[in-house]
Amino acid sequence: MSNYQHYVKNHLSQLMSTLGLNIAYTRAEGDYLYYRDTQGDEVPVLDLLGGYGSLIFGHNHPRIIARAKQLLDQQVPVHAQFSLREGSGELAKKLNQVMQRELNSDEEFAVTFANSGAEAIEAAIKHAELERVLKLQDLLDEVTLNIESVQHAIRVGEAKIPEHIYRHTSIREQVFDVRNFEELIVGLINHNTEQLVKRPIFLVLEKSFHGKLIGSVQLTYNKNFRRPFQYFGLNTRFISPNDPAQLDRVLQEERVVIFDLAVNGGEVTIVEREIPIFCAFLIEPIQGEGGVNLLSKEFAQQVRKTCNQLDCPLIIDEIQSGMGRSGTFLASSQIPVKGDYYTFSKSLGGGIAKISATLIKKSRLRKEFSLVHSSTFAEDDLSSGIALTVLEMLDDEQLNAYEKINASSRALCEALVRVQQKFPDVIRDVRGLGLFLGVEFFEQKDASSILFRGASYNDSFGYLLAGYLLHEERIRIAPPGSAPNVLRIEPSLFLTEAQIKHIEDAFARLCQIIQYQDALHLAFPLTNSQRAKPRLSIDNHHQDFTAKSSSGAGTSLTRPVRKVAFINHLISPELLAEVDPSLQHLNSEELRNFVERMEPNKKTAPFPPVRIQSPLGVAVDFYLYPLCVSSHQMVSYLSDGNLDGIRDDIQDRIAAAQEEGCEIAGLGMYTSIVTNNCTSLKIPDMALTSGNALTIGMALEAIEQAIADQRVALDDMTVVVVGAAGNIASTYASLLSEKCKRLILLGSERSGSLNRLQQTLHTIYEDTWQEINSKPFHQLGALAKRLVQEPLIQEWIECKNAPLKAIGKVIANALTERHGTDPFITISTDPELIRQGNIVLCSANSAEPFLSADDFGMNAIVCDIAVPNNVHADIVQQRPDIIYQQGGIVATPNGESLHPTARAFLGAGQLFACMAETVILGLAGINRHYSYGAISKQQVREILALAKAHGFSLASYKKGNSL
Predict the structure, then answer these.
(1) What is the pTM of this model?
(2) At what angle do helices 913-924 and 692-710 cross, to 10 degrees?
């Protein structure tokens, strides 16, 4: 783990690793960043991210570096606070000259310097609020003076008070009754006081980004940035630039008035005075984080007109779009729209200085601002000198910066448009100004590749593409934070024809990969493999993913279709190649590394729903919500006790299903185990089930069917239950004890396993005692009939003196004491006992098969319900005498099938029993938890009856894999 990940941004580093963006760069020059590969060789990467627009002159431009060295050699003061800082004065003068030329105006600006773009915004809104408060104070002073003047006019007889004035509704709300002028004044003052303390309103555009500091983050549209800090918040109204009428509605909704008094025609009148509730309107000419969106001329003019009407400042954020990046010094001058405040940063520092500037028209400047706002690190001569050099370089006729920017822009746009024309189904749009461009890709929510589909679902598709471009094409790029399907391109003005050709070819290959859904090329760099990529060609794996499986039952429905969900995970990483066939050239280790690399973001897109219809005229839509996590990882969470994260992931999947309208969520495989059979989850208004009851029932049916086919009797057989300490297997054992001759409960050698086996043993005996007490002899199961013959049990029956507690433990101890060993049930951790089993039920929680053909006795019936299986797949070839079946498989009523890439071991028309239980509960109209915590024998019998009623049955099995 790098020091950056360990000490600085751990979670972000994990996410970067997931996407293959965890590179430590060692050198930067021009348009290139360099890192060292595993052999120590330097690898150049074309940097199109460009410090989010900070590198209009590229990395470490020689002229800027030389100036920085010169300033350091001159030992210019960095900290000379509370003095005349001429370095910043020279920079402010140059900024004014550039702005006056750009705006064709002689208006001067006061400049406030800071260290970052977000601080520039903070300074701008801080001044805007100072401006508003001072205007508000002036208005309040005017109203106070007017009231006093009216009072004087009444006293000297120059004004009369009309009777109807006391009926003014808003004032009457402030006092119980208005019967005289003094009470009128009280009501008026109370109303005004209530209005004057209302928080100011900032008008901001949807998809905006203005920073992440405590004030500026409230002006940023992305709710993920803003919501955690909303209670600090500014009062912000976000306006859609595509809905001009919305702005007028907001102005009307937020209008606030106070009451003033005046004398008209000798009568006192109440006058409404609108207060300056709107503090400022902020816009970006080009919304970078919002997806490289250009502000339209028409809407910009409406914004300017609104600000003029409200007398509130228009703040134009040129932090990313300014400094020539758009082809002119101000991107806003190309719209055109003029602001009252401007903010700059990023390229102002030449790629090495941390500096920003807030420019405020002197006609709006409040002199008090310089006394109430300051910054320790602002206005230093070093940063100011570097920034001044940057401005001089932009104006340098020999460098011809603006012409270079526009020429490179034309060539790059033409190249990207050529790619779009070749792949119109992949690239939605190419847009931007100058060297501030965006390439928008179509969403991949219906992609046949689960990798593309999942990335789109998680809003990380652009980052996935960025990982490919970095590792395979040596291009560094990234999407904006609020537009995950857009790749933002911000190179330096020195972009060459060769580099543009490199970009065009790389994007063409990328689009071919997306069009063909060939995820191998994006996944392979994330496998940590040391071999060459196993396939260089881009192969076509595209298929229709959107079609739903239909029931074909043809029966009319008696009620609306319900929605149910199932939370599953990868049984093994190798199955990922079945889910996404383009990954079939990856070996097992590579697939495992890839899946484990997805650890920070396991959720992927749900599969299209399958409609499953019952012969009783009801139907459900069955949704799969997968987690990209393997059984190995699940086992590691359990062994480490690190369950909070995976439980949160499962809970998040269930919440997503609930938003889709699902009423029941089923868990299976390890999702039920890591949640203690659903009991660790707390999700209101959502029924949960682990599916264990039907899994048990179907396995028993499979065993009974195999016994019938063999024409043997279960009551003559020894049954071994592997993994008997688990929730499912303990219920199996209890049910099987009713029919078999002898029971062997086998646990693992892990700590605590023997204790859990003893608890299972005691539970079986306690259940059997309850059976003895509640049924006549001829209805008793095999174990109960044997126990009745034991002296202790006969005494309890005759004397009615059975203990009230720990009955199972008492019975087990008595049997051992009388017989030396328990004659009916054996508990052990010795796998050698498996050979004694005529029937072996495998239900252990293991990430890998651990039972081989040599572990079983002759002619054994082996029912393997574990997922992943406990038994190695070659048992059929190695042991033809054995009947091997996977009993937890259910046939759907009408052959309804999961999507082919979601079936894992399943065949067409089949579901795992845990999945089928979820469906059956939906069909039966059950809205409560079902297989939740411990499973009772009654639950097993009940769910089997429901399964039969709704047309579900045991999937046909064969010798070997029953799927």
Answers:
(1) 0.86
(2) 120
